[in-house]
User: Which sequence fits this backbone?
């Protein structure tokens, strides 16, 4: 019987599949006789006394299929590794020491951190400060380096595709142009995949700056060929050629992406004279049950994380590459984001069926 004790936390924005990973970690650990403590609200749980729950097969039964995270999460607080607008911060030394003391007091043999780019940046800093840490990659945006897919992405794409299916019928009935704004700050994976699966006519992603005039030309070309409606998917981080992303400052004084759909909607309507409507999908993409693929990916990630914890392969992150679950150094995941390459095969397929990306250069 292995007498080990592992800590686990979920950090950053929530996404479908987090509970599947927790369910899997508990299942794999219990099978080996190891104990799992789940910290509340991400890394913040390491700062407060008793801010954890002992996770067991009994109290995690049934969570596999549920959205969100039973542990709670935050993308703010003392450990905020990445502030909006790309600014990075270091976790101040006193919080690192306090968290380290918590791990020692509780006799943790390993800490499994489930999160995206910001959380993996924090995990790397903690590892460099001596934490026995293992990362599990999550984000609906699928923009984390060193893994070809994160769990949550497939569920978000399914949600956006479903939205497009619904918008098509109303757009066609009213002969309107409809824009669907989806998440994706720096990477357009959700817009690209859902746009292709959902039959979009135009897809605008951050990696391919758009030209408004070319979009208008394309809509007019479609209209002249007898198409009565046009469906456009736009990622929230899409920007015009030689222009910037649309940001607004929220009530906390933080820069927040938003407004690109609204801006385009007004300009397209004015220039085409055709009624144009906007649907901002927002957090619907992050909620709800994980798809089958995300459940399987989450379970496989959880099992691998426990394996790495037992092998004491700290400072690593579980990763999915070419159908295989493996481990990579945490440092490989955090230095840059995984954006859509202009020659991506999905882009090629989309262009192959006439989808327009808003730029004459493609
Ligand atoms: O999870 C990533 C993401 O969904 C981004 O695409 C989006 O901009 C951001 O999170 C919004 O997060 P929140 O509203 O929780 O700050």
Assistant:
């Amino acid at each position: 019987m292995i007498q080990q004790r592992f800590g686990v936390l979920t950090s950053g924005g929530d996404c479908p599949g987090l509970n599947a990973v927790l369910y899997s970690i508990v299942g794999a650990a219990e099978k080996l006789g190891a104990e799992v403590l789940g910290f509340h609200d991400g890394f913040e749980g390491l700062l407060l006394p008793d801010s954890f729950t002992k996770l067991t097969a009994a109290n995690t039964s049934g969570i596999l299929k549920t959205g969100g995270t039973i542990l709670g999460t935050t993308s703010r607080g003392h450990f905020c590794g990445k502030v909006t607008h790309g600014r990075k911060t270091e976790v101040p030394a006193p919080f690192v020491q306090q968290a380290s003391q918590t791990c020692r007091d509780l006799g943790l043999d390993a800490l499994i951190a489930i999160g995206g780019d910001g959380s993996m940046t924090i995990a790397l800093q903690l590892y460099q400060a001596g934490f026995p840490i293992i990362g599990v990659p999550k984000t609906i945006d699928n923009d984390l380096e060193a893994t070809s897919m994160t769990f949550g992405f497939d569920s978000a794409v399914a949600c956006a595709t479903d939205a497009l299916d619904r918008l098509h019928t109303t757009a066609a009935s009213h002969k309107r142009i409809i824009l669907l704004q989806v998440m994706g700050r720096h990477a357009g994976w959700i817009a690209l995949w859902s746009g292709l699966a959902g039959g979009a006519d135009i897809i605008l992603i951050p990696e391919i700056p758009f030209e408004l005039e070319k979009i208008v030309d394309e809509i007019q070309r479609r209209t002249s060929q007898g198409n009565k409606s046009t469906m456009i998917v736009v990622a929230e981080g899409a920007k015009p050629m030689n222009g910037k992303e649309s940001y607004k400052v929220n009530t906390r004084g933080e820069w927040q992406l938003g407004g690109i759909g609204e801006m385009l909607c007004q300009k397209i309507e004015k220039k085409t004279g055709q009624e144009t409507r906007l649907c901002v999908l927002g957090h619907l993409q992050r909620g709800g049950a994980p798809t089958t693929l995300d459940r399987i990916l989450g379970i496989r990630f959880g099992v691998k994380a426990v394996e790495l914890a037992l092998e004491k392969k700290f400072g690593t992150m579980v990763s999915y590459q070419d159908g295989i679950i493996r481990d990579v150094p945490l440092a490989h995941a955090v230095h840059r984001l995984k954006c859509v390459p202009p020659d991506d095969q999905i882009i090629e397929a989309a262009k192959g069926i006439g989808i327009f990306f808003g730029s004459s250069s493609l």
Q: What stands out?
A: The chain has two domains: 5-152+290-334, 157-286. The domain at 157-286 is CATH 3.40.50.460 (Rossmann fold).
